[in-house]
Design the sequence.
């Protein structure tokens, strides 16, 4: 390596880092879908963030009044274990990133090893800081509450060196581990799996060790040191620096200076170690053939493998889907290294298991079985289904042009994933059943009944998520050869969804199968039907979408089929509801319940409908329909007349229906919100009148008519589009009218459906959002006004 | 515009490949501009051009893998907008051979035959026949992951020809092959044409194009700047030296020929 000065290397390193960060930023925000996803996730995260922000602010204010927390003492002891855990995680991530092809191309430039290391480390640091940014915001909020701005600077100034040390130590650890494993001289595939397993063991070990430490502290052993705040390791005194300028009182002295020197020396040492080790890692020859004709080793047992499926009378022989599934399984078995990214699924589980092993040895086998069951569900999606387009690699063009239709390949993946998931999950569930007296035979059978759809749903949803967020570039994970691993987003989203489905499955199992369950038989049947319906919609929708993506490969707009259109509108209504709730929660956390009810309710009202608007507009953006899709225009005189007529017609129907209901003695439900408001104050009702007119009506018509009905009309005949949109509209009002019970609910929803259908026809005929928005708004406003007048 | 039922001018056969004003834009960049092609059946069309000229993009449009931004194309009278009708006539060897590394050559080809709907017996015959033609029979039981570049390309070529498509698109079929291997590939391609296949091949290797192609088209910056038989093209050099390479270099600069 050259003898460049440190300054030169630093300059070159910064250039490298800047280029990487720019590239990563552009790639992450490259597509519409990713941008929309960011916005969507940000809004969902908002309530949580605001909640923590409020707590941080309150803690800051409280600290001004001298609330004593032994934070400083605890930090001195937590610093080192925290750094160790982060080091292990950093090592994984950093070694993986530092080993990719971009480094190899940098090696051939005039940049020295040191410069490349600086560049890559800085670029990694930048990514991490973005992730840590959210936590840092909380620190700032706390400092604002505590009126100690200096605290923020202390955190940054003290934190950055620690971060850097963790990153460098992690890299050293990663390289040492890898090089050590390399010395043993295993085949590359085995080496990869072994290295990944070692990471897992280390992480579990650290977690288990901390657990032991905690036990020791509780029983007064090592804990004798803790109350005085003396750190177990002298470097722990460094933690005091974090609290400079804060209301908590750090002690600075010789020991702190010593700790700073220690951290500094450790950083320099780690840096030197990384610069020393990196080239050994970078320059190790890979197992690839280098362009000459090489004699490949014939695969043992090839003839039977070639014959799989070729005999027409075997089961596999009769089905091309099965043959394709065998192909995927074969590829997986022969090259297990490509699934190394699955270790990411294991990282949340390993610490929990380690803790159980230490803390609750009796419960450990059950915990292991439960973990295995969950892992099975995750694997059902994560192995064969999570990157259906990307994992075909260069073969994708052949699949697109194949005679076999797209469903063949999608179903093949679904089959392979489901079988794998079932085997693993059922084994885990079996262990739980065997080791826990809680699981009776009946519960076990019900559990299996819920397990199968859970596994299938996980596999199918992975197909869908992986098709929405495909990843085509190869990635090196744990020093493996390029694998077309799924995108992190897709893996995380699938993990979350699969976990939720598992949770629902467990809840369902207990609700239906547990002897103590308070539910009646019809209710239990209802739970089963609900679970299966939601699972079906999610699975069938995902499956259709994945097939459409393959079939329509290359086209900018994916032509999905008609059932999928129905799933889409159901999903739109569902997400509108969810987003509305999320935004409302965010507002509540922001302003607290300090606001008087008469202000809060209207604000929440508006804010919730904001969520609806976001979903509607977001849908138009992602599907490239654009805002022009909305039929917003000022009405003509004739149209205004139709508006008035429409209101009249709506009330006519309402009157007729109310009369019929009264005559027939049918029960009817009241809007849940109105119950609350009646108790609160009549003036609240009055304030809702303009909101009904200007917010509720327009926004609901925007979503249900201008987006949902119009979208359906692209695929279905107008009556069907109107009917489905009205059904969705009615269903969306279930939460609002749920309070009254099944009978009244059905009656009220039927009325809603009818009126909604009328509005749907008006929209279809006039093509004007203004008209139906006006009718809906006026109708609701007049109803509320009527309610106000009857109450006062 | 669907011209699949519009008969070709009387007396003329439907062209294997036809393009009218084929254009592809990526954002502000125009990769292919106003490309017109009329390629008769059972001929070899050689597509030349410098890197970045738009050859791969053109092939992707003709194989329906990318939709054109403007203009239209037809394969044997079927518009490329109807992928399901075009794909049964088409075989494609992309620049990166589309194979699974963990499969053996035989498994890969059996799989390809299967997804193209070939009957198993016929498929096995054809696989053996084609593998023998490209001297890959001996290594057919080894995993493709152990193959060299050239061997991979041979597997890709066989895969493209396996289901006897009427029109075959080959992106650099002889790249990475030594002279002997190159020779056997050239002979294979010629044989396919004799049995009725139309071959659209894109290559940098001028001698191969010269030998194989009935017509050569030169693409430069997205536009077709020259199109003729190799012999007549070669005559167009300024000093009459008659080399395709000269023509290629002349035409792919910003001087007019």
Sequence:
């Amino acid at each position: 390596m050259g003898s460049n000065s440190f300054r030169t290397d630093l300059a070159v390193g910064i250039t490298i880092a800047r280029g990487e960060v720019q590239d990563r930023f552009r790639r992450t925000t490259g597509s519409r879908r990713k941008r929309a996803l960011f916005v969507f996730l940000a809004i969902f995260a908002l309530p949580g963030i605001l909640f923590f922000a409020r707590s941080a602010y309150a803690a800051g204010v409280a600290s001004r009044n001298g609330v004593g927390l032994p934070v400083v003492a605890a930090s001195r002891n937590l610093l080192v274990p925290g750094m160790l855990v982060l080091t292990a995680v950093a090592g994984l991530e950093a070694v993986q990133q530092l080993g990719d092809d971009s480094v190899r191309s940098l090696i051939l430039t005039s940049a020295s090893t040191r410069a490349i290391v600086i560049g890559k480390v800085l670029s990694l640091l930048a990514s991490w800081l973005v992730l840590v940014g959210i936590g840092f915001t909380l620190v700032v909020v706390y400092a604002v509450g505590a009126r100690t701005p200096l605290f923020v600077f202390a955190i940054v100034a003290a934190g950055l060196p620690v971060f850097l040390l963790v990153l460098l130590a992690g890299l050293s650890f990663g390289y040492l581990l890898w090089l050590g494993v390399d010395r043993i001289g295993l085949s590359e595939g085995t080496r990869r799996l072994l290295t990944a397993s070692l990471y897992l063991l280390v992480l579990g070990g650290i977690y288990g060790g901390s657990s032991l430490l905690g036990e020791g502290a509780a029983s007064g052993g090592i804990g004798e040191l803790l109350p005085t705040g003396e750190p177990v390791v002298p470097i722990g005194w460094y933690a005091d620096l974090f609290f400079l300028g804060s209301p908590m009182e750090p002690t600075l002295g010789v020991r702190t200076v010593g700790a700073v020197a220690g951290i500094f020396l450790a950083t320099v040492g780690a840096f030197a170690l990384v610069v020393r080790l990196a080239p050994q890692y970078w320059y190790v020859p890979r197992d690839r053939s280098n362009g000459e004709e090489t004699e490949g080793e014939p695969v043992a047992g090839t003839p039977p493998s070639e014959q799989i499926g070729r005999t027409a009378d075997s089961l596999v022989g009769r089905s091309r889907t099965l043959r394709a599934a065998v192909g995927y399984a074969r590829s997986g078995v022969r090259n297990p290294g490509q699934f190394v990214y699955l270790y990411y699924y294991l990282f949340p589980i390993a610490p929990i298991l380690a803790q159980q092993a230490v803390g609750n040895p009796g419960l450990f086998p059950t915990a292991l079985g439960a973990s295995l069951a969950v892992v099975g569900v995750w694997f059902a999606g994560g192995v064969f289904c999570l990157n259906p387009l990307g994992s075909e690699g260069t073969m994708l063009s052949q699949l697109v042009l194949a005679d076999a239709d797209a469903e063949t390949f999608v179903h093949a993946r679904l089959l392979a994933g489901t079988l794998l998931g079932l085997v693993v999950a059922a084994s885990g569930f079996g262990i739980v059943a065997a080791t826990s007296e809680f699981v009776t035979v009946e519960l076990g059978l019900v559990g299996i009944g819920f397990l199968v759809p859970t596994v299938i749903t996980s596999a199918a949803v992975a197909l869908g998520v992986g098709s929405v967020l495909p990843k085509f570039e190869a990635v090196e994970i744990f020093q493996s050869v390029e694998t077309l691993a799924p995108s992190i987003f897709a893996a995380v989203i699938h993990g979350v969804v699969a976990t939720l489905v598992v949770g629902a499955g467990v809840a369902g199992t207990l609700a239906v199968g547990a002897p103590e369950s308070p539910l009646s038989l019809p209710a239990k049947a209802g739970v089963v039907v609900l679970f299966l319906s939601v699972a079906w919609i999610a699975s069938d929708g995902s499956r259709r979408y994945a097939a459409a993506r393959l079939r329509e490969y290359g086209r900018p707009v994916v032509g999905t089929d008609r059932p999928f259109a129905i799933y889409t509108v159901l999903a739109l209504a569902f997400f509108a509801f969810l987003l509305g709730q999320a935004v409302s929660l965010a507002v509540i956390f922001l302003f607290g319940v300090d606001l008087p009810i008469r202000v809060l309710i209207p604000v929440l009202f508006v804010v919730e409908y904001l969520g609806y608007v976001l979903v509607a507009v977001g849908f138009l953006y992602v599907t490239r329909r654009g805002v022009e899709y909305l039929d917003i225009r000022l009405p003509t005189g004739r149209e205004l007349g139709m508006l008035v007529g429409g209101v009249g017609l709506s009330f006519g129907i309402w009157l007729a229906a109310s009369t019929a209901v009264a005559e027939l003695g049918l029960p009817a439900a009241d809007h849940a919100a109105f119950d609350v408001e009646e108790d609160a104050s009549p003036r609240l009702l009055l304030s809702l009148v303009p909101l009904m007119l200007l917010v509720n009506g327009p926004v609901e018509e925007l979503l249900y008519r201008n987006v949902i009905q119009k979208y359906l009309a692209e695929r279905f005949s107008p009556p069907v589009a109107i009917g489905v949109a009205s059904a969705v509209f009615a269903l969306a009002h279930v939460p609002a009218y749920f309070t009254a019970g099944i009978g009244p609910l059905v009656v009220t929803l039927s009325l809603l459906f009818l009126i909604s259908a009328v509005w749907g026809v008006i929209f279809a005929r006039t093509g004007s959002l203004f008209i139906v928005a006006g009718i809906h708004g006026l109708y609701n406003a007049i109803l509320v006004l009527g309610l106000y007048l009857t109450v006062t | 515009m669907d011209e699949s039922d519009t008969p070709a001018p009387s007396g003329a056969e439907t062209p294997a490949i036809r393009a009218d004003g084929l254009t592809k834009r990526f954002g502000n960049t125009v990769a292919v501009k106003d490309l017109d092609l009329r390629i008769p059946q059972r001929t070899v069309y050689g597509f030349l051009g410098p890197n970045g000229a738009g050859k791969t993009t053109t092939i992707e449009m003709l194989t329906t893998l990318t939709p054109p931004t403007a203009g239209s194309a037809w394969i044997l009278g079927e518009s490329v907008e109807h992928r399901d009708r075009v794909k049964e006539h088409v075989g494609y060897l992309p620049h990166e051979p589309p194979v699974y590394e963990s499969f053996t050559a035989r498994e890969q080809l059996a799989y390809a035959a299967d997804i193209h709907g070939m009957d198993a017996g016929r498929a096995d015959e054809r696989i053996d026949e084609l593998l023998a033609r490209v001297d890959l029979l001996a290594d057919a039981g080894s995993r493709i992951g152990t193959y060299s570049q050239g061997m991979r390309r041979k597997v890709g070529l066989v895969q493209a020809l396996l289901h006897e498509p009427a029109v075959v698109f080959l992106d650099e079929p002889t790249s990475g092959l030594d002279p002997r291997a190159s020779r056997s590939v050239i002979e294979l391609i010629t044989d396919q044409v004799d049995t009725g296949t139309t071959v659209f091949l894109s290559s940098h290797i001028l001698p191969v194009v010269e030998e194989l192609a009935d017509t050569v088209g030169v693409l430069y910056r997205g536009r077709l700047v020259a199109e003729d038989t190799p012999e007549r093209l070669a005559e167009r050099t300024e000093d009459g030296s008659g080399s395709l390479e000269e023509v290629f270099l002349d035409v792919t600069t910003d001087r007019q020929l």
About this structure: The first strand of chain B starts at residue 17 and ends at 26.
